[in-house]
Structures are given as C-alpha cells and as structure tokens.
Design a protein that fits this description.
Function: Part of the ABC transporter complex UgpBAEC involved in sn-glycerol-3-phosphate (G3P) import. Probably responsible for the translocation of the substrate across the membrane.
Strand content: under 5%
Number of helices: 13
GO biological process, one term: transmembrane transport
Distance between the termini: 31 Å
Pfam family, one: BPD_transp_1
Structural class: mainly alpha
Number of strands: 2
Strand order of the largest sheet: 1-2
CATH class: Mainly Alpha
Order of helices and strands: HEEHHHHHHHHHHHH
Helix content: over 70%
Shape: globular
CATH architecture: Orthogonal Bundle
Protein name: sn-glycerol-3-phosphate transport system permease protein UgpA
CATH superfamily: MetI-like
Subunit structure: The complex is composed of two ATP-binding proteins (UgpC), two transmembrane proteins (UgpA and UgpE) and a solute-binding protein (UgpB).
C-alpha cells in the first residue's frame, strides 16, 4: 500500500498553521526570557519609577551573598533527594504492577491520579498530615518516640518538602517505567528463569539494564522538575523556612523579586538558575548518556 503524503503548494499555509503556537511561545516564553536577561543588568526602583544600568553588579552580588550560596546547597540537597526518592519508589511500583496478572489497570489508574493534583494542593495535603499539632503522620511519629516539628527543625522541613514534591512526580515516572518493563520480551525473562535466576537477579541483570534509556530520560526530567516546578510545594508547606533551610533557588528568586521588590537581583537569579539547569542537562547528555544501552 502506497504511503500517503501531504504536500503543500506554498510556504504560507504551513506558516499560518504554525503561527498560533509560535506566537504563544514568543509572548509567554521568549519575550519574558529576554526581558529577564535585560533586567538582570539593571537595578530598578521598588516603586517602579526608574531603573539604572549596573552591569554585572547583580551577578557579583549574588555569588558574594551567603544566603544565595546557602540556597544553592539547599537546592542540590533537595533535587538529589527528590530525584532519588522518585526513581526508587516509582520503579518499585512499576515492578510490582508488572508482576500482577489481574487488576493492572486499576492499580495503574490509582498510581497515576496524584499527577493530576496541582503542586500547591499536594503541598497543603502533606502539610496537614505532618502538622505538629493536628497532623496524623506527626502524631504517629510521636507515638513511635520520634520528635517531629518542621516549623522549628530545618531537617524535618527538608524531609517534608522532598516527600511532598516526590509524591506527585512518582506518578509521572511510574508510567514510563511500567511501559519500559512491559516492552521487555517475555522470552528473555523466561529464559533467565529457566537458567535458575530468581526474580531479584532477573530484575537487576536483565530488566534494569534494558531500562537504562528510560532511567536516563527520567533523571533529566526529575532534576529539571526539582529545580523549576516545585515552587508551589515549598510555598504551601514551609515558605522557605524555618530560617532559610528550605529556600531553594526558585523560591529565593520569588522572595527577592516579589516580596523584596529587588527585581534586578531576581532577574539575575532566574538567568543563573536557567544556566545551571542547561549546564546539568548538557553534562548528562554528554557524559552520562555514554553508559546508556539502547
């Protein structure tokens, strides 16, 4: 059967079809990004009466600020915690569902639902469960003799935002891991079972290496998620506290820009944050991808 192809007689109609998406991309992504880069070289009045060109002073002030350097370390700890917890739990759920003979669709639907919840709502849910006064999880921890108060303890607050942020992202990873496991030929798994390999050995010697492309993709996605898309979770749970123990780079950008009205510093922080994420992505594709077997 011959393949049917659509051939446009001119360039104007394809351009017309692309125009709405290009316009949205320019208005909501390209133009704000260019404005942030421009504003990072200026220091503006808090009341919006004017601005003054300061060159790279906003950038030099960032890297001599102890609070900003602390937020970098907080972001590293937070992103590593979210990525590790998300990958391990979602892979475990995917492996469990893959072994179920009946009810697979039901379990898949239950595990995917949390992804439909907004980050701020997810943060509020976990805040209620871990609240030192009324939280059921905090009550259970106290019954076990574990002291919990994320309002005063920075380590407890970090654990809370890591768990809350990872809980929502687990659903996204689960979908890809389950699809990857189900795409592995059953003949390979059955051959290993006949040779005497147990379930755990089959998973680590066959399934996990074949999942390396999926794993690499999800590592990149989860790091970007932890850097950029977790503002709602942090704002709804700890608001960067106690102190600045949970103030990540994206949350500090918000605090300095919207609360402190330091728009120049906030713009510089957004440029630096974007540069860090781009650099991490390039490093992962340049070096980590070499270990991926397609």
């Amino acid at each position: 059967m011959a393949e049917k192809r659509v051939v446009f007689r001119g360039w104007w109609f394809p351009a017309l079809l692309l125009l709405p998406q290009l316009a949205i991309t320019f208005v909501f992504f390209v133009w704000p990004a260019l404005q942030a880069v421009r504003q990072s070289f200026y220091r503006g009045d808090a009341f919006g009466f004017g601005e003054r060109f300061v060159g790279v002073s906003n950038y030099t002030a960032l890297f001599t600020s102890q609070s900003y350097l602390a937020s970098i370390w907080t972001t590293v700890v937070f992103s590593l915690g979210v990525t590790a917890l998300t990958l391990v739990v979602s892979l475990g759920f995917a492996a469990a569902v893959d072994r179920i003979l009946r009810g697979t669709s039901f379990y898949t639907a239950m595990l995917v639902w949390p992804y439909a919840i907004a980050p701020a709502v997810a943060g509020v849910l976990w805040w209620f469960m871990f609240d030192p006064s009324i939280g059921i999880v905090a009550y259970g921890l106290r019954a076990l003799g574990v002291s919990w108060n994320h309002l005063l303890d920075g380590d407890d607050a970090m654990i809370l935002i890591v768990v809350a942020a990872a809980w929502r992202q687990i659903s996204y990873n689960f979908i890809f891991f389950l699809a990857g496991l189900q795409s592995i030929p059953r003949s390979v798994i059955e051959a290993a079972a006949i040779d005497g390999a147990g379930p755990i050995k089959r998973f680590f010697t066959i399934a996990l290496p074949l999942l390396s492309p999926t794993l690499f993709f999800l590592i990149v996605i989860d790091i970007v998620y932890a850097f950029f898309e977790t503002f709602g979770v942090i704002d709804a749970t700890t608001r960067g506290g106690p102190g600045q123990s949970t103030t990540t780079l994206v949350y500090k950008t918000y605090v300095d820009g919207f609360l402190s009205q330091n728009f120049g510093s906030s713009a510089a922080q957004s440029v630096v944050l974007t540069g860090i994420v781009v650099a991490l992505t390039v490093v992962q594709f340049r070096f980590v991808e070499r270990r991926v077997h397609y």
